[in-house]
């Protein structure tokens, strides 16, 4: 319709309001003479057109439509209604000013931790904690005793996830001299939504067991010196008797409130206790003595024999005072492996075997150490030169060195179709010698023949964990080139002999010719000529 909003103006606009959650509230909007669409917005989002707010069951548009009244009624306010609202006349292109609706939320009933009765022993201070949750604004908490507000409480608040409500926690501290059994203390939480406040009450119950203090003098002290223990107690009813103990064992020769003794290292780990008894029960307090003493072994490490690839774990526990330092090292190495009681060697190899030392040092007091051994079980490992040199026609030896824990069950040499573990077979002899480092197996050949240079020799060792094999070849000593087959070798040797003979013969001819020419040239100047100069030298 043309001109539906040409002169439309708002005669009523929403105003800022404060409401307690759960109560109804109405936001005004009047635009007389306007017949176009009216739109309500909450925080910039449309709620519905004209009187259709079907998506919001708590919202209604009320007022006389003929008078242009489009008031927004919120029946039961909730936290999501805490927002800005505005009314818009779409065709008139006008809107009201934004109105802030503030929703207040009263705190939930306050809760005192430990209520309704908080018990404590005589002489102990009292700490009371009260929390009031889900309030907007945050609740204020006061503590009341006998009609008087108690001061000095600590106060903190936490903003909840909705960003609006808050939880409040208040902690009240009362010294032992400021409390009595049977007293009732009230926690009162209030805010603008609950101005009269909500209360929680707790009753104090004090238990009168003996209060005991155990002193030790002097401290610190070197072992071997005199120390005095004094057990002082306050009790109601009065103390009946004292009982002393050390490390849980009763000291029967002492019955009063004082105990004197010459201390040793055990007083550092075995506390001295004083138990004080009255008609209501007993109170026991214990103290260790700060005794200075050098390292003492608490758990002795044990030597280990483990399989290769497994973890080796040594445990070496020392006690000492002042605090001691523990160092694990492998004997012969300066590398620190651990500064803890436990030394873990993961996935050990055979080269990890050896002696390990656990050393403890108490500064300015003393030191101690303990050595253990690590033996690593695994398959044999063979180390040998893969190409070994021998002299043709002489006796030759091949050696393989075997490391094995446990020792090898069997060592065998094999070549072609022959297997020899020990003793002599034809030209071959096998000897095995054990050393501190391992086992040396030697294959001896009485006379090296050309075929030996073509043979592949296998040295194999076995134990219960597996085996290892080394392949060894022979090379003629002093020969840089690889060995050639037998037939070719014989032909080559013959060719070398013939070549050497022919070369020597030709060299002789050249030498004789040179001598002849020299003689002729020398005696040509002489009136005498030798017969040699007048002849041809022939062979």
TrEMBL record:
<keyword id="KW-0812">Transmembrane</keyword>
<keyword id="KW-0325">Glycoprotein</keyword>
<dbReference type="Pfam" id="PF07679">
    <property type="entry name" value="I-set"/>
</dbReference>
<keyword id="KW-0732">Signal</keyword>
<keyword id="KW-0472">Membrane</keyword>
<dbReference type="InterPro" id="IPR007110">
    <property type="entry name" value="Ig-like_dom"/>
</dbReference>
<dbReference type="InterPro" id="IPR013783">
    <property type="entry name" value="Ig-like_fold"/>
</dbReference>
<dbReference type="InterPro" id="IPR051275">
    <property type="entry name" value="Cell_adhesion_signaling"/>
</dbReference>
<dbReference type="Pfam" id="PF13927">
    <property type="entry name" value="Ig_3"/>
</dbReference>
<keyword id="KW-1015">Disulfide bond</keyword>
<dbReference type="InterPro" id="IPR003599">
    <property type="entry name" value="Ig_sub"/>
</dbReference>
<feature type="domain" description="Ig-like">
    <location>
        <begin position="110"/>
        <end position="203"/>
    </location>
</feature>
<dbReference type="InterPro" id="IPR036179">
    <property type="entry name" value="Ig-like_dom_sf"/>
</dbReference>
<dbReference type="InterPro" id="IPR013162">
    <property type="entry name" value="CD80_C2-set"/>
</dbReference>
<dbReference type="InterPro" id="IPR013098">
    <property type="entry name" value="Ig_I-set"/>
</dbReference>
<feature type="transmembrane region" description="Helical">
    <location>
        <begin position="494"/>
        <end position="521"/>
    </location>
</feature>
<feature type="domain" description="Ig-like">
    <location>
        <begin position="8"/>
        <end position="102"/>
    </location>
</feature>
<protein>
    <submittedName>
        <fullName>Kirre like nephrin family adhesion molecule 3</fullName>
    </submittedName>
</protein>
<keyword id="KW-0393">Immunoglobulin domain</keyword>
<dbReference type="Pfam" id="PF08205">
    <property type="entry name" value="C2-set_2"/>
</dbReference>
<comment type="similarity">
    <text>Belongs to the immunoglobulin superfamily.</text>
</comment>
<feature type="domain" description="Ig-like">
    <location>
        <begin position="210"/>
        <end position="290"/>
    </location>
</feature>
<feature type="domain" description="Ig-like">
    <location>
        <begin position="295"/>
        <end position="375"/>
    </location>
</feature>
<dbReference type="GO" id="GO:0005911">
    <property type="term" value="C:cell-cell junction"/>
</dbReference>
<keyword id="KW-0677">Repeat</keyword>
<dbReference type="GO" id="GO:0050839">
    <property type="term" value="F:cell adhesion molecule binding"/>
</dbReference>
<dbReference type="GO" id="GO:0098609">
    <property type="term" value="P:cell-cell adhesion"/>
</dbReference>
<dbReference type="GO" id="GO:0007416">
    <property type="term" value="P:synapse assembly"/>
</dbReference>
<feature type="domain" description="Ig-like">
    <location>
        <begin position="380"/>
        <end position="475"/>
    </location>
</feature>
<keyword id="KW-1133">Transmembrane helix</keyword>
<dbReference type="InterPro" id="IPR003598">
    <property type="entry name" value="Ig_sub2"/>
</dbReference>
<dbReference type="GO" id="GO:0005886">
    <property type="term" value="C:plasma membrane"/>
</dbReference>
<keyword id="KW-1003">Cell membrane</keyword>
